[in-house]
């Protein structure tokens, strides 16, 4: 069963939900490569909707191919929020997102439209689902740089540090989840409070329809592998090279054409080293140069391309590393979202309707 096979069922569920909850919000979530965006777009045939992205990578401008943003044509037809709102060298915290989304949702409802949150970043979804109270602590870049440098010298040292200061939060985080550990330490050092004492779950502000799209591991991994090949064939390496300022000071003129749900393939010959830099990657609006040390450039996909450009490994190993890392990410996402299913069965949150659709 594929996405197009469940559209009518999901349509009926949303209609029932909206009849009971005209001020409700639909959330479509699960792991990467399950078809969340495709489903949301297909549903636009039946609902006057506006989509709020719950993807922590799509907030960044110019980082388009690996983040798999929808096409410009779709953005014109269906209003999207939380996409292309900050530059790659800017910070955007979960607290900022919560404040922004809590303004966006009533605005959408005031326009008599359906708010639909779509994505796989569980922390972004939890800002609505669990309605966390969040500390108003802006990022301290100097402190963050110091903590990241400390971790680089001695891996897992920050997790040990957090275990002493906030053992409950440390138990939730893998020692390699450096970004989340740094934020927890930042909250403690800037406020003297533990993150577990400041992130307090509350009932959702509005009725929610939590719709999960569940794929088996093997099917998800096959789709991930195919998507990575497509992205690499769509000038992903060129996009990263331009971001790093290693190509032209101005963005190339030729645009890459995109399909409804992703990038179309383009001829490339990176494996042989014969690729010519005389054709474009996308229509960027900025000539800014970004560094490989930015948090946004440390993500899966961008990190591997940077290391490939530095000669640390060849094209085939770069592709394989991307696949392995993305499979691991999908595993984490599945684990997180299974908790929602368990909670819906054992201890459902007030004002939340839980639904899961299994895909083949």
How would you describe this structure to a colleague?
The chain is of the alpha/beta class and 360 residues long. The protein has three domains: 3-134 and 201-216 and 336-359, 3-Layer(aba) Sandwich (Rossmann fold); 141-198, Orthogonal Bundle (Histone, subunit A); 219-326, Crystal structure of tRNA isopentenylpyrophosphate transferase (bh2366) domain (Helix Hairpins, Orthogonal Bundle). It is built from 14 helices and six strands. It has helices at residues 3-20, 36-43, 72-77, 94-110, 122-129, 141-153, 157-165, 167-172, 178-191, 195-198, 217-233, 236-243, 302-309, 315-346; strands at residues 25-29, 49-53, 80-81, 114-119, 208-215, 352-359. A six-stranded parallel sheet has the order 3-2-4-1-5-6, with helices on both faces. Helix 6 crosses helix 9 (178-191) and helix 12 crosses helix 13 (302-309). The longest helix has 32 residues, at 315-346. The model is unreliable at 248-287 (pLDDT under 50).
Keywords for this structure?
about 350 residues, alpha/beta, Rossmann fold, Histone, subunit A, Helix Hairpins, six-stranded parallel sheet, about 45% helix
Catalogue the unreliable spans: 248-287
CATH C-level label of the largest domain: Alpha Beta
- Main sheet attributes: strand count, strand direction, barrel closure: 6 strands, parallel
Measured by DSSP, the beta-strand proportion falls in 5-15%
Count of DSSP E strands?
6
Strand order of the largest sheet: 3-2-4-1-5-6
Structural Rg: 21 Å
Instruction: Specify the number of helices.
Output: 14
């Amino acid at each position: 069963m594929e996405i197009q096979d469940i559209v009518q069922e999901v349509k009926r569920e949303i209609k029932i939900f909206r009849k009971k909850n005209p001020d409700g919000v639909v959330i479509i979530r699960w792991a990467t490569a399950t078809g969340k965006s495709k489903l949301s777009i297909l549903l636009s045939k039946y609902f006057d909707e506006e989509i709020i992205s719950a993807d922590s990578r799509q907030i960044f401008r110019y980082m388009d191919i690996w983040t798999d943003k929808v096409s410009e044509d779709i953005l014109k037809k269906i209003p999207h929020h939380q996409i292309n709102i900050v530059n790659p060298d800017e910070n955007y915290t979960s607290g900022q997102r919560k404040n922004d989304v809590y303004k966006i949702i009533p605005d959408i409802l005031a326009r008599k439209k359906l708010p639909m949150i779509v994505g796989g970043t569980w922390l972004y979804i939890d800002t609505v689902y669990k309605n966390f109270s969040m500390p108003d602590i802006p990022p301290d870049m100097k402190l963050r740089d110091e903590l990241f440098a400390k971790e680089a010298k001695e891996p897992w040292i920050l997790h040990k540090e957090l275990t002493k200061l906030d053992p409950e939060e440390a138990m939730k985080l893998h020692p390699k989840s450096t970004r989340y550990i740094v934020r927890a330490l930042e909250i403690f050092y800037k406020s003297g409070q533990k993150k577990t004492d400041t992130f307090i779950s509350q009932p959702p502000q509005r009725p929610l329809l939590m719709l999960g799209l569940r794929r088996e591991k093997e099917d998800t991994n096959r789709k991930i592998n195919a998507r990575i090949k497509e992205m690499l064939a769509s000038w992903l390496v060129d996009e990263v090279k331009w971001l790093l300022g290693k190509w032209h000071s101005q963005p190339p003129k030729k645009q890459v054409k995109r399909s409804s749900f992703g990038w179309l393939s383009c001829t490339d010959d990176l494996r042989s080293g014969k690729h010519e830099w005389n054709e474009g990657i996308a229509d960027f609006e900025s000539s800014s140069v970004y560094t490989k040390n930015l948090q946004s450039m440390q993500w899966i996909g961008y990190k591997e391309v940077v290391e490939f450009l530095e000669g640390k490994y060849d094209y085939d190993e770069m592709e394989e590393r991307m696949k392995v890392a993305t499979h691991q990410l999908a595993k984490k996402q599945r684990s997180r979202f299974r908790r929602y299913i368990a909670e819906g069965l054992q201890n459902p949150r007030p004002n939340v309707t839980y639904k899961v659709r299994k895909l083949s």
